[in-house]
Design a protein that fits this description.
Elements: H1 11-39, H2 43-70, H3 80-94, H4 99-130, H5 134-167
Organism: Deinococcus hohokamensis
InterPro entries: DUF892_YciF-like, Ferritin-like, Ferritin-like_SF, YciF
Protein name: Ferritin-like domain-containing protein
Length: 168
């Protein structure tokens, strides 16, 4: 039988651990977005990646504020899921493909990132609600809404780029 992990004794512990996961993920994304922007050929897609990097840096700042309020260190955790998603995005960056096909692949990679973030922020916002951390829940929902908007922006870009990719 597996030994119980006593590090996570209650929902507060899980909340902090999930915040650390998102903090790690956001920092990985912050490093990946300029590479994705550089690899993109569609000017709107390129700008979308650059805009999202600025937003990602704001989101990192929000998380750091939450950690400060909690009296916790944001470090010490690596988001392994985001490592894998980013690695797949890096593979797409290196792929030899027609421009529109590569852009379509970059969008797919970016949407995987967004969907992970949407899930993560939805979860921690709910935990914050249950824990009575209303201000933190509101901050987390702001980020959640930004992630949803980014996903929608990528979907709109994909509608055009996917057609171009099919024609190439």
């Amino acid at each position: 039988m597996a030994k119980m992990n006593v590090k996570l004794q209650d929902l507060q512990d899980l909340y902090v651990e999930q915040l650390r996961d998102l903090y790690s993920a956001e920092n990985q994304i912050d490093r990946a977005l300029p590479l994705m922007a550089e690899a993109a050929t569609d000017p709107d897609l390129k700008q979308s990646f650059l805009d999202h990097q600025v937003q990602t840096q704001e989101q990192i700042g929000r998380l750091e504020g939450i950690f400060q309020t909690l009296g916790q260190d944001p470090g010490g955790h690596t988001c392994k899921a985001m490592q894998g998603i980013v690695a797949e995005g890096e593979d797409m960056i290196q792929e030899r493909a027609a421009s529109a096909v590569k852009d379509a692949g970059l969008i797919a990679s970016a949407q995987r990132i967004e969907h992970y973030e949407i899930t993560g922020y939805g979860t921690v916002a709910t935990y914050a609600d249950v824990l009575g951390l209303d201000e933190q829940a509101s901050i987390l929902r702001t980020t959640l809404e930004e992630e949803r908007q980014t996903d929608e922006r990528l979907t709109l870009a994909a509608q055009q780029i996917n057609v171009e990719a099919a024609e190439s």
